[in-house]
Amino acid sequence: MIEKTAVIKNSDGIHCRPSAVIVKASKCYTDCQIRVLAQTGSCDPRSVLALISLALSPGTIIRIQVEGPEEERICGELVELFETHFDFPPLG
């Protein structure tokens, strides 16, 4: 198992749309066990509701744990996603 730290950088935190992007990416890693740990709890990042329930606001430090094939690469990719400043276009 590998564990890395990430800092939430999105100006609105991890709300519905960033969660959907993270969930979509996480679901590709079917051979791995993944956990996101924060002060507010922990979850498998394959669930939008679970991610939102962590209330990950800007500046929140999380830990990402991955166990399975290619865990180093997968954990790195998830860190990048959680540290992305998502720039979604305004809803019409």
Description:
The chain has 92 residues and is α+β, with helices and mostly antiparallel strands. The protein has a single domain (2-82), classed as HPr-like (Histidine-containing Protein, Chain: A). The protein is 32% helix and 24% strand. The protein contains 3 helices and 4 strands. Strands 1-4-2-3 form a 4-stranded antiparallel sheet, with helices on one face. The termini are far apart.
The top level CATH class name: Alpha Beta
Rounded mean pLDDT is 94
CATH topology term? Histidine-containing Protein, Chain: A
User: How many DSSP E strands?
Assistant: 4
User: Major sheet: order of its strands?
Assistant: 1-4-2-3
Q: What is the H level of CATH, i.e. the homologous superfamily?
A: HPr-like
Terminal Cα separation, in Å?
A: 43 Å
Q: What percent of the residues sit in helical stretches (DSSP H or I)?
A: 25-40%
Low-confidence stretches: none
Beta-strand fraction estimate: 15-25%
Q: What are the defining features of this structure?
A:
92 residues; Histidine-containing Protein, Chain: A; four-stranded antiparallel beta sheet; globular
